[in-house]
Amino acid sequence: MWFSEILDIEFVKEYLRNQVNEIVWWWCYYIREIFWQLLIAFFAYTCVCIFFYVILKKVNHAAWQLPGPPRRVLLVTAHPDDEAMFFGPLIYWVTRSKISNIYLLCFSSGGDKQRKEELWNCAKVLGIPEANVTIIMSTELPDSQSVRWPIDVLAENILHYIESYKINAVITFDKHGVSKHKNHISLYFAIAALCIEKKVPSYCKLYVLESVNIIRKYVQLFDLPISLLSTSYWYLVTYEQRQIIRNAMKAHKSQYVWFRKIYMIFSRYTFINTLQEVSALDLELDFQFDDEYIQSNYEPVQNESNDNCK
Predict the structure, then answer these.
(1) In angstroms, rounded to a whole number, what is the distance separating the alpha carbons of residues 83 and 73?
(2) 208: enclosing H helix or E strand
(3) Where is the signal peptide (predicted)?
């Protein structure tokens, strides 16, 4: 009897062993199949990206750029190096337009004289005339990740620039600031305040640079199909043209450290800029969701203009 029990135990062990082996085999099979399917999908998507890139190199992009095009474009940034790190493709094409003239308004000097000089040098490489570059220096606007700049100060300066130079298009960061930098986000709320209060002249439109998630931010060419399908306005440069943007960033010698070098290699913002036009309805929704931020930072901009935000 004890012998039969041993046989039964051995039988059970063998049965369980076979079942485990079969389960492992099927798991390996499914993983292998999924791997090959993902590999094929990746290869197909890569081909699509390359196809888009090759086609777009040979066509005129004017139909997808800002309508008009605007004769005077104001780029509003928070720090020296923002223009090269985030707005390079936009600047590249606007500076080469026979119709448009670009102005750069930077709201901090980065804390020292060297960074101001680096901004002049960078602007020269990008093709922005030195006379069109303005740097605001104020103790109320420190270069800090943790500081939200006062909206009224920003808005007043932006509005003054719009009216003084008859700006047709203002471009800055969106509500996420690309890198979630609070100085960047403050610029968005400044133009939002101007629009909500109907201070923006009728001849001027507002646009923001689209922020994307961390994966899209660093996949460069692979973000091309998504960018083209998800936005109305975009500026794309080729790899040859992109070298000019990288050279411009090198002018910021004090900031061109190893992690920014990596950023300039992989970031989609050195390859394509996608823009969204600011609408009053979207702004009202943003203000509702960011009610605490608005209450602590927003003050009405004192100006007698009665023009509407378009």
Answers:
(1) 14
(2) strand 205-209
(3) none
Contact between 77 and 111 under an 8 Å Cβ cutoff? The reply is no
With left for phi above 0 and alpha for psi between -120 and 50, is residue 171 left, alpha or beta? beta
pLDDT tens figures, 112-170: 789 999 999 999 999 999 999 999 988 899 888 888 899 999 999 999 999 999 999 99
Residue 293 near residue 148, CB atoms below 8 Å: yes
CA atoms within 13 A on the CB side of 3: 0
- Closest C-alpha among 79, 286, 76 to residue 189: 286
How far apart, in whole angstroms, are the C-alpha atoms of residue 162 and residue 164?
A: 6
Radius of gyration over alpha carbons of the chain, in Å? 26
pLDDT of residue 4: 52
Residue spans of alpha helices (H) in 181-279:
182-196, 214-217, 224-230, 239-250, 258-266
Buried/exposed code over 216-253 (b: 16+ C-beta within 10 A; e: otherwise):
bbbbbebbbeebeeeeebbbbbeeebbebbbebbbbbe
